[in-house]
Design brief:
The chain has 248 residues and is of the alpha/beta class. It has one domain: Aldolase class I (TIM Barrel, Alpha-Beta Barrel), CATH 3.20.20.70. The protein is built from ten helices and eight strands. An eight-stranded parallel barrel has the order 1-2-3-4-5-6-7-8, surrounded by five helices. Helix 1 packs across helix 10. Bound molecules: 1,3-dihydroxyacetonephosphate. The site of 1,3-dihydroxyacetonephosphate has 14 residues, from strand 8.
Length: 248
């Protein structure tokens, strides 16, 4: 059995004090959660949010990590720096980073290996654009990301994949339950083939893209979908809690 994991990606929202307020409101709403609950917050919010989640089931995640252990990389944050603050998860390769900040499959792979080496759980994002989906290229794009982003990983039970079709992010246009289930099933099948013998069966795959309090039940009922990576709806405690409590 794969334990469901619901993670909020706050993106560049909430100052430290706003973030602390948000999780304080969230805490009582998710205290009976059966799934893993994660908030991936802006790096500068980490100390305040860490304090605010104390004594709850909410776990702490970051939104990026550098691949070097340390050194002359102005503006970057290493896996050990995150780890020391009690961060347990880190989003890697989000499509916004790929589109706006020069993230490539090669750097996604390097960051993933660095996160694993430090004992963090990477949440690696993959997915196709609208043109790619409409051009019938979805599987080809995913095959390519699968081949390049995960090289050198020995134990896939330690990573989470977020399948985020770019056309569904922040657009209100969600993949249908069947589309999400089918594509995630494809990713799992392909990964099992490419990374045979490396615990792929235990790896969780989330869906991300306009997941909300209304559509979460249908998506989470799909057998291949092990959780969600939530953007907009994670900024509202009641909405995020409704997703976390999808099984109620
Ligand atoms: P939205 O839920 O706002 O569509 O964002 C999804 C996402 O990008 C999560 O990483």
């Amino acid at each position: 059995m794969r334990k469901p994991i619901i993670a909020g990606n706050w993106k560049m929202n909430n100052t430290a004090s706003e973030g602390a307020e948000l999780v304080k409101a969230l805490k009582p709403l998710v205290k009976e959660a059966k799934c893993e609950v994660v908030v991936c917050v802006p790096a500068i919010d980490i100390p305040a949010v860490k304090k605010a989640i104390h004594g709850s089931k909410i776990r702490l995640g970051a939104q990026n990590v550098h691949f070097a252990e340390k050194g002359a990389y102005t503006g970057e944050i290493s896996a050990n720096m995150l780890k020391e603050y009690g961060v347990q998860y880190v989003i890697i390769g989000h499509s916004e980073r790929r589109a706006y900040f020069g993230e490539t499959d090669e750097t996604v792979n390097k960051r993933t290996l660095a996160a694993l080496a430090a004992g963090l759980t990477p949440i690696v994002c993959i997915g196709e654009s609208l043109e790619e989906r409409e051009g019938g290229l979805t599987e080809k794009v995913l095959d390519n990301q699968i081949a390049l982003d995960f090289q050198g990983i020995e134990d896939f039970s330690k990573i989470v994949i977020a399948y985020e079709p770019i056309w569904a992010i922040g657009t209100g246009r969600t993949a249908t339950d069947e589309q999400a289930n089918e594509t995630i099933g494809y990713i799992r099948k392909r990964m099992k083939k490419v990374y045979a013998g490396k615990n792929v069966g235990k790896m969780r795959i989330q869906y991300g893209g306009s997941m909300n309090a209304k559509n979460c039940k249908g998506l989470m009922a799909q057998p291949e979908i092990d959780g969600g990576l939530i953007g907009g709806a994670s900024l509202k405690p009641a909405d995020f809690a409704a997703i976390v409590n999808f099984d109620k």
